[in-house]
Design goal:
This protein has two domains: 368 residues, Alkaline Phosphatase, subunit A (3-Layer(aba) Sandwich); 57 residues, Arylsulfatase, C-terminal domain (2-Layer Sandwich). It has ten helices and 20 strands. The chain is globular and about 65 Å long.
Length: 495
């Protein structure tokens, strides 16, 4: 499936003043293709290589066997939007109060910011995104019937094919290079996250129309037999079918790789799986021992396999750096009555970790984290703590790109860890965020959650992750000096 790059690198250089920055040349061998596979809500214990023994994830396992599997790899937050914001900007989402966004939110990335794809454009890369965006579009009053600006194309992507927010939120349409795909101008899209709009049926009023019962607010406008969060009307010919999403996004990703295999490229493949609604394609429905939750993970694994197969077919896998991540931890029981929780069959989605999506415990942010680059990375397992917010500065180091003050302000160089040359970063700490401004810190093996971030308990929490990875024993009261030290460090980071 071929795709076209919307605008050349020259056009992008003209669009943004941050792209005029000087860089140090590197050899072609030191300029790998880069693919970031960012999965949605995949848990630490889900893939087989992380302990998910009841599932089949041969392609993710192959990545781990041929690269470095990190046992202490962290997303930048325990929910999606702030985590993705940090990945692309190198800045913590809590600094800008980024939380889970509605589908009509304004662009969260400043027009003056240097983003990860912008930096890679400057280094000679063609850049593309396929899949989930969820960082806002337009200026806060987005019209989905016209060209949308700013969009991913204005923040560093030469090519973009994505959906605006989450697959349980409206509008349920694809956008390619700033325009809704397949939109009939005589059937304009309208979106509301307040009062109902138009006359489309809702899950609340017409439960008989649902093929998947919605819970916790997932009962508004019905699209493809599924109640969504938010209201929409119009764009009938442009609406997606959930069963086809994995195949479509994977095809677009493969097409981008094939189109640009002769030059350095950066692909941000942000899968919709395994976020709810979990609606696998026909060939994956009923394929696992763990109900629909397992089915959707095995569909995700197929997508990973298609990427790896394409690299092999094109004979470019040797010098392609693949980075496999999840935006946050899992939550099996959330918005739809799909039987996910009841049919896990003993599967532990977070392994031995406490907490899940949206929490400050390890299960919320510690996720699968794998790097593979056959030309430069020797296979192995690393217990080095590393957060994916540090990818920005690490790739800048790899490409000899000099970041200036204010650029990727919270990202720090962890290249030696990511490539397996070291077990320690210079900073040796990781920050965590929930769906708000509450934060926690891991420093070495110590994990500190200040009482300000846990108002329901009113107590500081301190855990020794070396002895207590499941965070069962709060040792704050018997380690006051460590608590004081980490509280001071959090204050320094905040300011």
């Amino acid at each position: 499936m071929e795709v076209a790059v919307s605008k050349g690198l020259t056009a992008c250089l003209l669009l943004s003043p941050v792209l005029l920055q000087a860089k140090v040349p590197v050899s072609q061998f030191d300029k790998p293709n880069i693919i970031v596979i960012l999965t949605d809500d995949l848990g630490y214990g889900d893939p087989v290589c992380y302990g998910g023994s009841k599932l089949k994830t041969p392609n993710i396992d192959r990545l781990a066997a041929e690269g470095i599997r990190f046992t202490n790899g962290y997303a930048a937050a325990s929910v999606c939007s702030p985590s993705r914001y940090a990945l692309l900007t190198g800045e913590y989402g809590w600094r800008k109060k980024v939380s889970i966004l509605p589908g009509n939110a304004a662009m969260t990335i400043s027009k003056d910011a240097l983003t990860l794809p912008m930096m890679l454009q400057q280094c000679g890369y063609v850049t593309g995104i396929t899949g989930k965006w969820h960082l806002g579009l337009g200026d806060g009053n987005v019209d989905f019937n016209k060209e949308i600006k700013p969009s991913p194309n204005e923040v560093g992507f030469d090519y973009s094919f994505y959906y605006p927010a989450t697959n349980d939120r409206v509008p349920c349409v694809y956008i390619e290079n700033g325009r809704v795909v397949g939109l009939d101008p005589n059937d304009p899209i309208r979106v509301s996250y307040g009062t109902p709009i138009g006359n489309w049926p809702t899950g609340k009023d017409h439960p008989e129309m649902l093929k998947l019962k919605g819970l916790n607010g997932h009962n508004q406008t019905i699209v493809n037999g599924i109640g969504r969060i938010g209201y929409m009307t119009g764009g009938t010919k442009a609406l997606w079918k959930d069963e086809e999403m994995a195949e479509l996004f994977t095809g677009k990703a493969v097409g981008f790789i094939r189109k640009n295999a002769g030059k350095p490229f950066f692909l941000y493949f942000a899968t919709h799986n395994i976020h709810e609604p979990r609606v696998p394609g026909p060939k994956f429905r009923g394929s696992s021992e763990c109900g629909v939750y397992g089915d959707i993970i095995q569909e995700l694994d197929w997508s990973v396999g298609e990427i790896l197969k394409t690299l092999s077919d094109l004979k470019i896998e040797e010098n392609t750096l693949v980075i496999f991540l999840s935006d946050n931890g899992p939550r099996v029981a959330e918005g739809y009555a799909d039987g996910g929780l009841q049919n896990l069959n003993g599967h532990k989605e977070t392994g031995v970790l406490r907490g899940d999506k949206g929490t400050l415990y390890e299960g919320g942010s510690r996720t699968p984290f794998i790097t593979r680059w056959p030309a430069k990375i020797k296979p192995g397992v690393s217990d080095a703590p590393i957060g994916f917010i540090d990818l920005f500065a690490s790739l800048a180091d790899l490409l000899k790109f000099k970041l200036t003050a204010g650029q990727a302000p919270d990202s720090r160089d962890g290249l030696a860890v990511l490539t397996g040359k070291s077990r320690h970063t210079k900073h040796n700490e990781v920050m965590m965020q929930d769906n708000g401004v509450n934060i926690a810190i891991r420093s070495g093996y110590w994990k500190f959650i200040p009482k300000e971030s846990k108002p329901q308990s009113g107590k500081d929490e301190l855990y020794d992750l070396k002895k207590d990875v499941s965070e069962q024993f709060n040792v704050a009261e018997i380690n006051p000096k460590i608590v004081s030290k980490l509280r001071l460090r959090l204050d320094q980071i905040k300011h």
